[in-house]
Design a protein that fits this description.
By secondary structure, the chain is α/β, with parallel strands linked by helices. Helix content is about 35%, strand content about 25%. The protein binds NADP nicotinamide-adenine-dinucleotide phosphate (NAP) and L-homoserine.
Length: about 425
């Protein structure tokens, strides 16, 4: 029998338990496909007494993930604890220093420290694989670093946070409150240990930074992302957008422009009839555009035990076969430092505002938009809520700077009842 690949797994929560299950249930198949058995030798989590619904008695238990990471009987350190720093980073660094390959689902750690960790790995002739960190079960990192390796990628975009997409679609389709939809997403294992990472768009931003790195051969630049979460998206906007033929999605877009690398992760309107508009629940979608391939669309479950463990195990299988693609698809010291674009490409915008229902109020708003060079495409006054007038405006293409100027001028009038909501309409 050939030498087994021995895994040390730190983190036995949603994803870790999923990985243990696959290693056990698919042992024979994995041996056949990898040409050698894949085994677990040691595991680690915080609470040894916790019932995880799986037997762990066959594995060495380590209270300390760093001690696990450097064990002689561990070939690959599988980091599934989470957190950008702390135990995850310490154990990953220890594993690399001890000459182990690392497989992780930890987008927070890699978005913030991926460059330094990749350099450490390469200095020891090792790699960090992170398929599970981006878009759950969708093999998008593999698609970019392998199948599309011969393309100059022009744009990547997508819906990459299952929690947010689940909440937005369940609020619209099932009429749930935000709290009810969030509780369901949590029950499905989608939500991060710190849910503000999901809702604030930060988790999706981490994923976008990693995708940009592999797509554009650039150093991961999380700080260069224009980032907004779904916390300000109201049920009213979800319904109004639907009425006008759109859906609201937490959409990430990354493209290389003459002004630098434009990376945005923000709630956007997309046509309800488009593939992105039709995504429901925890499903993710990534659209990749390249000079040779034109466009490909990848769609699949973005979170949860099975899909995420599937991605972790895909990386493990590569390592078992002796296949090592550099962490970000090319040597880390050759990744370019691409400056962040200071402004984004023009787009139409959706504006929702409530005006005082008095003569000239709407005319003032139209004048302000005109003065900032913004042309109105469609406009609707809705509801019967005298003395207030709820108004929806869809603009023609404009820049965010021009819109911000107009919003600033509107704030100086006495016709607004509340601060306007402004959402970009993405052409997809
Ligand atoms: P989780 O359910 O919260 O599990 C985390 C596990 O790590 C727990 O078993 C916990 O131990 C252990 N742990 C935490 N801190 C530790 C420490 N200092 N020392 C030892 N063990 C520690 O998290 P998860 O959902 O499985 O996510 C794990 C990673 O995968 C995260 O990076 C997450 O962002 C990423 N990810 C998750 C999903 C998903 O759908 N859940 C999808 C893609 C990526 P106890 O159980 O004893 O508390
Ligand atoms: N919290 C993440 C999500 C898990 O909801 O998409 C998958 O990365």
């Amino acid at each position: 029998m050939s030498t087994p690949l021995r895994l040390g797994i730190a983190g036995l929560g949603t994803v870790g338990v999923g990985v243990v299950r696959i290693v056990r249930t698919h042992a024979e198949m994995l041996t056949a496909r990898c040409g050698r058995p894949v085994e677990i030798t040691a595991v680690s989590a915080r609470d040894r007494s916790k019932d995880r619904g799986i037997g762990l008695s066959g594995y060495t238990w380590c209270d300390d993930p760093v001690a696990l990471a450097v064990r002689e009987d561990v070939d690959v350190f599988v980091e599934l604890m989470g957190g950008s720093d702390g135990a995850a980073k310490q154990a990953t660094e220890a594993a690399l220093a001890a000459g182990k390959d690392v497989v992780t689902a930890n987008k927070a750690m890699l978005a913030l420290h991926g460059q330094a960790l990749a350099e450490k790995a390469e200095a020891r002739g090792r790699v960090i694989r992170f398929e599970a960190a981006v878009a759950g079960g969708i093999p998008v990192v593999k698609a970019l670093t392998e199948g599309l390796a011969a393309n100059r990628v022009t744009r990547v975009m997508g819906v990459m946070n299952g929690t947010c997409n689940y909440i937005l679609t369940r609020m619209e389709k099932a009429g749930l409150t935000y709290e009810e939809a969030f509780a369901e997403a949590d029950g499905l294992g989608y939500v991060e240990a710190d849910p503000t990472l999901d809702i604030g768009g930060i988790d999706a931003g981490h994923k976008l930074a990693l995708l940009s790195a592999v797509a554009f051969g650039a150093r991961p630049d999380f700080d260069g992302i224009r980032l907004e979460g779904i916390d300000k998206v109201s049920i009213e906007d979800i319904h109004q957008a639907a009425d006008m033929g759109f859906r609201i999605k937490l959409l990430g877009v990354s493209q290389r422009t003459a002004r630098g690398l434009e990376q945005r992760m923000q709630p956007c309107l997309v046509p309800a009839s488009s593939p992105l508009g039709q995504l429901e629940g925890g499903t993710n979608m990534v659209v990749i555009e390249g000079d040779a391939v034109e466009q490909i669309v990848l769609r699949g479950p973005g979170a949860g035990e099975g899909p995420t463990a599937s991605a972790v195990m895909g990386d493990v299988c590569d390592l078992a076969r002796g296949y090592r693609v550099p962490t970000f698809g090319q040597p880390a010291d050759q990744l370019e430092t691409v400056p962040a674009a200071k402004s984004s490409l023009p787009a139409p915008f959706y504006l929702r505002m409530t005006l005082k229902d008095k003569p000239g109020a709407l005319a003032q708003i139209a004048t302000i938009l005109g003065a900032s060079g913004i042309s109105i495409d469609r406009m609707r006054q809705y509801g019967d809520s005298e003395p207030e007038a709820p108004v929806l405006i869809v603009t023609h293409k404009t820049t965010r700077d021009a819109l911000d100027e107009a919003l600033g001028s509107m704030a100086g009038t006495d016709v607004l009842v509340s601060t306007p909501v402004a959402l970009r309409i993405e052409e997809v």
